[in-house]
Specification:
The chain has about 450 residues and is an all-beta fold. It is built from 1 helix and 39 strands.
């Protein structure tokens, strides 16, 4: 009988295999190419999440297995409809969702495994006390629009209806009137004004009829409203920016030997008017405090002093001013108690900063502003010699600060990753955005606390 060679055996075996008559290998001693099946194994467990309402929370699990595992997220033991990927993002959160227990079941044909249970913690949204009002602006895509926010709702204020306008710090008078300073553009110039419950009153300008004026801060004392700012005077040579305040609608010029001067903050106590600002000396800005119309150069770290005074409050008989002073390299945050200078601490890699807001609560001074750190503006606040930074995406600034029931609440703005300026509140490190006009941006500018 003819002998069958080994190569023929392999050939016949291959034909038999193709005919499906018997199980066979790849022949020739080769190994199988079918991957080994394995049950799922979780290599990275999900972690608990803490958010502030209404922010969403995201849970992630990482697992291996063959065949590729499937995923099913559960909340308190019940399957979440549609939550079938390795990552699950909650809908907008509420405080009622706090304490929920989340697990993920990972499965394939070889088995299943359930992740560790993790907890969602939802903190309440930042809320200012009822009646608290902030002022600033939003943007409609072409211009800024002045507005106020009260109890989370925005009310737009009227400029000329066509051109840009800005609103600044509001104050309540007699428990019913919300007074807001600012300015609007009429197409040729900026015009200082106030709004009383939304009704605009223009303030006296100066220089020529085409010169601009700006109202930046407001205070009330004994039923009289005082507003601080400055105006341009192109009738002078060279053109000047003149610091001033308005007593009602009457303008009072503040003495300034320089061509550029500004009043940024105002406080009134017992009929005495205090304005904080600066003037340009030719080599730098000099921080200034005017008492009625008497100027005082505030001391700095250099001689002559360099810096800006941005805010002022009166506590008892003590005048406290916030701002910044130059140290030869950068401006650093500071306060003046009377005329005594105190610089404020900076944290991390910060090289400078500024104070923009002050509040005295139960004998404790609080200051808000920002730090300049690694090319970013980091919003922060100070009290008792401690600096506390606040979370932002890129840059930010605190422009109002107050303490309510022991909790520090700051108002200001931050910029998003796509450079949209967003008005917001911070409380205990949590941030809540204030409503804008779409995604065009806005900011709380020197917001003041208004309690009915």
């Amino acid at each position: 009988m003819k002998r069958i060679t080994s190569s023929q055996v392999r050939l016949y075996a291959g034909v038999v295999c193709l005919l499906g008559l018997t199980a066979c290998s790849s022949g020739g001693g080769g190994s199988s190419s079918t991957p080994t099946q394995t049950a799922p194994v979780i290599t990275t467990q999900p972690t608990g999440q803490t958010v502030t309402a209404p922010s969403t929370a995201t849970f992630t699990v990482v697992a291996t297995g063959n065949p590729t595992p499937t995923y099913q997220w559960d909340l308190n033991g019940a399957a979440i409809q549609g939550a079938t990927s390795a990552t699950y993002t909650t809908p907008a959160t509420t405080t009622a969702m706090s304490g929920g227990s989340y697990t993920c079941e990972v499965a394939n044909s070889d088995g299943s495994v359930t992740s560790a249970a993790v907890t969602l913690t939802v903190n309440p949204a930042v809320s200012a006390p009822p009646g608290a009002t902030f002022a600033g602006s939003v943007n409609d895509g072409t211009k800024s629009i002045p507005c106020t926010w009260t109890d989370g709702s925005r009310t737009n204020l009227a400029g000329d209806g066509t051109h840009a306008a800005m609103a600044f710090s509001p104050v309540v008078v007699a428990g019913s009137s919300i007074l807001v300073p600012g300015f609007y553009n009429d197409g040729t110039k900026n015009i200082a004004c106030t709004w009383n419950n939304g009704v605009r009153t223009d303030l006296a300008g100066g220089g020529l009829a085409t010169d601009s004026s700006f109202a930046l801060a407001i205070a009330e004392d004994g039923g009289t409203v005082y507003t601080a700012g400055y105006y341009s005077d192109s009738s002078a040579t060279p053109t000047k920016n003149v610091p001033c305040y308005w007593n009602g609608s009457s303008r009072v010029d503040l003495p300034c030997t320089a061509t550029q001067g500004y009043a940024f903050g105002i406080a009134v106590s017992g009929g005495t008017v205090y304005c904080a600002g600066s003037y340009y000396s030719g080599s730098g800005d000099v921080p200034q405090l005017w008492t009625n119309t008497a100027p005082t150069n505030l001391p700095g770290l250099l001689t002559p002093s360099v810096g800006d005074a941005t805010s002022v409050i009166v506590s008892g008989s003590t005048v406290i001013v916030g701002g910044m002073v130059g140290n030869g390299t950068e401006d650093v945050p500071c306060i003046w108690t009377g005329t005594t200078l105190s610089t404020l601490p900076m944290v991390g890699p910060a090289v400078g900063g500024q104070v923009c807001a002050l509040a005295m609560v139960d004998g404790t001074l609080y200051a808000g502003g920002n730090l300049w750190s690694s090319g970013l503006d980091v919003p922060c606040w100070w009290s008792g010699g401690v600096c506390t930074t606040l979370p932002v995406i890129t840059n930010g600034l605190v422009e109002a600060i107050q303490v309510v029931q022991g909790s520090v609440i700051c108002a200001g703005y931050y910029t998003t990753s796509n450079d949209v300026t967003t008005p917001c509140l911070w409380q205990s490190g949590d941030r809540t955005d204030l409503p804008m006009l779409g995604t065009n941006g806005g900011e709380v500018v020197c917001g003041w606390w208004v309690l009915d």
